[in-house]
Amino acid sequence: MRVLGIETSCDETAAAVVEDGKTILSNVVATQIPFHAEFQGVVPEIASRKHTEWIYAVTKEALDRAGVKPPDLDGVAVTSEPGMLGSLLVGVNFAKAFAYTQGLPFVAVNHILGHLYASRLTESAPDYPFLGLLVSGGHSIVCRADNFDAVTVIGATIDDAAGEAFDKVSKRYGLGYPGGAVIDKLSQNGDASAFRFPMPNLYKGEHQYDFSYSGLKTAVINQLEQFRVKPGTRSPADIAASFQKTAVDILLRSLFRAVEDTGLTTIVAGGGVAANSYLRARLAARPGVRAVFPPLSLCGDNAAMIAGLGYHYLARGDRSSLATVASSQTRGFKKKYP
Ligand code: KG4
Ligand code: ZN
Question: What's the pTM?
Answer without folding.
Answer: 0.93
